[in-house]
Input
Amino acid sequence: MEKISVTLTNAVGLHARPASLLTKLANNFECNIEFYKNENPGKKGKLKSILSVLALGAAQGDILTFEANGRDEKEAVKAIDAFIKGGCGE
Amino acid sequence: MDKKKLAKDIVELLGGKDNIANCVHCVTRLRFNLIDDSKANKKEIEELDGVMGLAEQGGQFQVIIGTSVADVFNEVEPLLSDKAAGAVPETKKKYNLMSILDVLTSIIAPIIPAFCAAGMIKIILLLLTALKISDGTEGAYQVFSIISDVAFYFLPILIAMSAAKRFKTDPGLAVCVAGALLYPTFVSMVSGGESLTFLGIHVPMYSYSSTIFPALLGVLLLSYLHRFWDRVVKWNAFKLLLVPILSLGITIPVTLLVLAPLGNWGALILGKGFSWMIGTLGPFAGLIIGFFMPIMTLTGLHQSLAPIELLELTSGGFSRILPIEFFHNMAESGAAFGTGVATKDKKFKALAFQTGTTAFMGVSEPALYTVMVKDRYAMLSAMIGNGIGGFLSILFALKMYAYVWPNVFSIPTFLGGDSITSNVVMLLASIVITFAVAFALPIVFSVLGLRKDRDIGVMSPISGKVIPLSEVKDEVFSKGICGEGVAVIPNEGRVVAPCDGQVVAAMNHAVGIIAKNGSEILIHVGLNTVELNGEGIKVFVKEGDNVKRGQLLIEFDKDIIEEKGYDTTCIVVKTNGEVKVDNDKRDTLSGEKLFLC
Output
């Protein structure tokens, strides 16, 4: 398993646009990716579902932790890290 | 253009293979996901010979190549680390039973209307003769008899036309390939028992009327040959002449010599298999044949049973396989009616009852292609029902004493042999049991929660003007990144639930609902309205709420939002798959159907 924590920087959080882009990015990878916010693994979301990403309701400053499991987990985590740090395409 | 060099240059200019997390291609573009976007030299890539342009979208680098993208991709692939390359998921070709079935269904589905017309007329004609209203010799009867038969006799032509579309080849040439199989000279040689040699090779002589695979295989070959010659013949002036000649000149002989007989031999082997099975396995053979009968009918393989049945009739005076086909109609009918009762989708319900009736009358294809292919539990129910029917049929030694279209009107053909009354009692009992099992199963599957309605109707959450997503002024929606659906330019501020389901995401400007069939529906009010932070918008549901269609979700003040400079277009998308939109340019009222998903 590959794990990474990133702080969400974009002003309006993970709303429809960044969520869609993030899910699209996640769907490029084979591995299963789950994520949760603010170190609370009790409420995990699936990164490959837009609604699941939206449901987490991540806001600016939240710490997002991604856990990827599968063949291309390293690449997936790298790509997600770059995406979040790059301001989620906004 | 040197594709190898182009591929190498692209990869290098994107920051080398280590910077490429993922690469796929679609029809015209190479799509890269880069680990570090800043390492990409966009300017130089755009200037490469063979690159038509560059687009960045959704964190993806798209290098526009044009139609030769697949060739370039083939060169890019070996340059990447072993994990990064692949075809786009939606165009990824997986060869398995389901994809073959999918190809068959997509080829057969468009010609079903012709079958239905023929089937219904056949039943009416049977009824007319059974009731002695007609003796089958009148001119009108003859004409209608042609209608009832034409789609079957010329089935290879219909298949060719439809297959040409599916395999993306020239329809005119495809019909010629099928026409060759039915050409009068050839047909009369077959029926006259004459022989034909092609350049010294003996041509197998079979009748190809009412067959599917000979024409299908022929058109498949044509599609490859046509593309091949189109590529090879560089001289444009001669293309028009040479490509068809070379394509047909090879396809038709190969089809007559190899492919068409192959299709027929396949059918014959199948036939021998069945006779052997009934001999050794008894009722269990009926169970197996019955169980697979719906699939065989779906793929048209059941046509291949006709010669076996005829053989049975001419040698023993009765057929044991024909009754299993008879039970197939009963099972399809039962499963369609059962599914009609089980489904909540009104349109699907009506369709199920309608096709269930048709199946009971003896034409199972409409039920198969509209209900069974859409609902795998309906299919399974039909298969189990048919299996039981087949078991009982062999167990009770049910026989049909004439070759007929197996339907309710053909019950008289069961009468024959010594024990007429017991035969009829057993027959009626078997019909009732088969129908009842197939009818009950979809309902049982639904109660157990296994069978779910696949298509649900998504209603408009608001009144206004429906527009296609492509016209929405936000790329994430207009390019379909968020999912498929439509947008509504609202003329009110009341947003209601478009379907029954559970709220899984409730934000201050959008609500996400999971419908009963698993569709994830997002209703997004306005563009960039997340920035309003709830101002002018009130959300009435929270995560975990179960909502009913029409229930109030959100109220917003159109004027306030528009004053602040935001677009209030409401977007309704399914975020996890395809939808079927009928009409995305019209006015709608809140609660009117937007799409199926």
Chain B has 20 helices and 20 strands. Confidence is low (pLDDT under 50) at residues 87-94 of chain B. The first strand of chain B starts at residue 20 and ends at 25.
